Amino acid sequence: MAGIIAAETNNGLGIAGINPRAKVQHIRILGSCGGTTSDEIAAIRWAAGLPIPTDLLAGNTAPPINPTPAKVINLSLGGESPCSDAEQTAINAAVNAGSIIVVAAGNSNLDLDLRDYAPANCNNVITVAGTEVNGNRLVNTSNYGSKVEIAAPGRAIKSTMNDGTTTPTSSWSYKLKTGTSMAAPIVAGVVSLMLSHQPTLTFIDVRHILQTTASPFPAGSECSSNPSNTFYCGDGIVNAASAVQALPGYTARGALVDLTPNRVLDTRDGTGGVPREKVGNFSGTAADLRFRILGSGSIPNLGVAAVSMNVTATQTSAPDEGGYVTVYPCATGLPEASNINFTNGQIVPNAVIVPVGNGEICFHVYGSAHLVVDVYGWLPFGAGFTTVSPNRVLDTRTGTGGVPVSRIGNFTGTAADLPFTILGAGSIPASDVAAVSLNVTVADTDAPDEGGYATIYPCAVGRPNVSNLNFTNRQIVANAVIVPVDVDGRICAHVYGSAHLIIDVNGWFSVGAGFTAVDPSRVMDTRDGTGGVSVVRVGNFTGTAADLSFTIVGTDGIPSTGVSAVSLNVTAAETSAPPVGGYVTVYPCALGRPNVSNLNFRDRQIVANTVIVPVDDFGRVCLHVYGTAHLIIDVNGWFPGADPTLLNQT
């Protein structure tokens, strides 16, 4: 039952629970020989934070009062007997104390209006019938009648299972089970989602919302929502999305909850409680750095599917073939993917969207480097962005993805672009995808004197006048890219110069989600005044020059209102840097400049990075440069305003 309610997600294992951030208390009522009503009463009272009467203790010492009373109590049990006065009194006390009790209707094929079956026929509980995959009543199984409030799937429900017979063992597995005992925890999980948003909901509130938002039984189902019919199975089949969206004060979140950028980890000075030492070694066998991202830097402890951050490798040392950094959810294991590539003595940043799994993210370094992490936002569960464990879907060095084993591009920019069908690749669905989140790397590069670049774009719309990565000769350069897919599910890669191309995928945005992808376009360039800015480099060597303010809303594809954050590719060109190096920080102007950076550069470089940045109340972003550089902004999408109220998960 616990797995159905709250199994972890984004770990590549087994199943996903209805509310994976729910806190679960296990209270044993039944043993191998069953149990008694007094056991059930004691369990209900203790779960609700109430004392257990002496007559139920059988001479045993009373346990301490439960310090964390359950907001939802699931009872996947029952038997053919009336609801006793003592049982009803315990249920009433628990409900009055604030608990919502969900019970299985039972699997005896009984009409609960004619036959006794407790606790399903008690008052003040939400009784759940079970349905087949097609929405019919569980064949010759599920109880029915006017005592039933709602139905939920009960056929072949997979959940976690421990193989112990008397006590838990270390042997865990997943098994399929059928019955109303599986349907009840589905409803209990939905109730916990509702209470996550509205913790003050009462039993009456919850029952009403569940019943009025339920999906109707399909045509031909034996189950009916008409109490006059024989097989009454409640008001319909539970609908989690509709129940949550019907809550008072509910506002749909955007795909991104943006934050004021802030530094959460720095191995140079121990920020974040990490060791003050470089990570990695030249054999790739050093222990990966583990860091609990949930609860750090305004990231909540609950309700987070992924985080958006900027990761920088600095003071790097690399073997001859180069070093790299991989950021991944610790629970899934190290993937064959990379986020940052470096050589000796570099400062290399990259934007990273990483699933949080069990709340810890890991950093693997091949070579050695200090690591700096700045967070920009987080993506909630169910808000339109689906994370996947990072995985490689294309590599022209090896032919991964069915592409030719050859470098792309030429020095005139006239070589054929590389099309690739991204839908259906690497855990990306074959349909209903608006945009994909990628890490794109160029390797074995050759560039003309002015430098080379790569552009990733939806094939059908034609190549835009933008770039995602910039390179010179013999480099390995990576950058995060959020790109729309075209109507055929494709993206195209254009290279000016020549390079091998590697694409790792880490997530996707669904159609109609809280992220609106736009065809990439250039909205600002200080080299030629695009966007109405001055034709002059930004910054100075003391960091005291005026920051560049730019109104991003209302530019190509970005609405003038309703925007909370934008997805950009920011490039610094014609750079000059002090001996310690230069950097660029992009931030919402009205909030003041944070102690973070988005790009790092040396003299005479062209450096690009993806930046997901909130806009201020006037629709502006500001750019600060330590050193001097021309700045170019290409826009590829935007996030709508998000509900700022954080989830209070139960």
UniProtKB/TrEMBL annotation:
Annotated GO biological process: proteolysis
Source species of the chain: freshwater metagenome
Limits of the Peptidase S8/S53 domain: 1-218
N-terminal signal peptide: none
Membership in a protein family: Belongs to the peptidase S8 family.
Entry protein name: Unannotated protein
GO molecular function, one term: serine-type endopeptidase activity
UniProt keywords, alphabetically: Hydrolase, Protease, Serine protease
